[in-house]
Fold this sequence. Notes:
The chain is mostly helical. The chain is built from eight helices and two strands; from the N terminus they run ββαααααααα. It has a two-stranded antiparallel ribbon with strand order 1-2.
Amino acid sequence: xxxxxxxxxxxxxxxxxxxQYWYEVDEVKERTFTFKEETLNQTSSAIRKIINKIxxxxxxxxxxxxxxxxTRALDDKDSDYSIIxxxxxxxxxxxxxxxxxxxxxxxxxIYKDHxxxxxxxxxxxxxxxxxxxxxxxxxxxxxISYQIHRIFRSLIFFYVGNKDFKSLNEANSFLDSPIIxxxxxxxxxxxxxxxxxRN
Length: 199
């Protein structure tokens, strides 16, 4: 949702407060998205299911807040702004502390081609840091913003699509699992050994 070309000031009852208009000089015309009538019920039902799943996840309020941050990041047409805000949305959901290595590892884990996603995330991290600290901007910002948006969306569907996790923290711990099969087998062996040891 973006502001239109003109702004007006209104009283609480909706009437004009003053007879004056402000113009949005940076307005970009966008085609208004309209849900198709025949899919409206299906879309509404899917959205309600996702909201219910988020409400039933322990730590789901972090998912909710992350989604709000995600949508606000995409409200602005400035891709540099979007990248900074999208990165913050990812951090708020995937990693509570400011460790970008953990964030990148967890985000790339859900993809089959995790090395490619890892490179995309590294590029986004470097671009974001340069933009924040040195004000460096580039035409590639649109592409980087789009990639982070896709990764965030995939993560949300990962969280709400898995009912095996008791909490968001447990799901994030799962994302720290080893990628190589042999390493997973070794971890299973060590966990079984820990159970025997504790018993």
